[in-house]
TrEMBL record:
Protein name: DNA-binding transcriptional regulator, MarR family
Keywords: DNA-binding
Sequence ranges assigned to domain HTH marR-type in this UniProt record: 3-140
Pfam family, one: MarR
PANTHER family the UniProt entry points to: CONSERVED PROTEIN, HTH-TYPE TRANSCRIPTIONAL REGULATOR RV0880
Length: 142
């Protein structure tokens, strides 16, 4: 039988850290985790078609359509008709959307950097750096 204690502990602590990081967002109010993930995906991979965006966050195309409408109303994204197929649109971040993602990432990084500086010793920081490399390996597991 597998000992799932380590896996459970890792899941719990990463979830707790994720929630703490989400609390640090002062820039973008009233957006869900899926909406923030959508903006982040656009930041890294734009332009995207709605079907690609839905696949990236593991939701149905109809749900993504609602998210796109909300983000467009907030002036965070731009929709551009396809040049080859007028029925399709590509989506990209607006200048304001890019600015908001940059600010959000900065706020999270600042909080995390402050937490690391104030709560971890030099040895802890070295160990954390090694743990980050291990977590990267876990994140790549399929």
């Amino acid at each position: 039988m597998k000992d799932t204690h380590l896996a459970s502990s890792l899941r719990n602590v990463t979830s707790k850290l994720f929630k703490r990081l989400r609390q640090q967002i002062n820039t973008i109010d009233n957006l869900s985790i899926t909406e923030i993930s959508t903006l982040s995906n656009l930041y890294n991979h734009q332009p995207l078609f709605p079907s690609q965006m839905a696949e990236m966050v593991k939701i149905k195309a109809q749900s993504m359509s609602q998210i796109i409408n909300k983000l467009e109303e907030a002036n965070l994204i731009l929709k551009t008709p396809s040049e080859t197929d007028k029925r399709k649109v590509s989506v990209s971040l607006s200048g304001f959307g890019k600015e908001m993602v940059d600010k959000t990432r900065f706020e999270r990084d600042e909080w995390l950097n402050e937490a690391i500086e104030h709560h971890l010793s030099v040895a802890d920081k070295k160990l954390l750096q090694e743990a980050v490399a291990l977590m990267e390996k876990l994140a790549e597991y399929k």
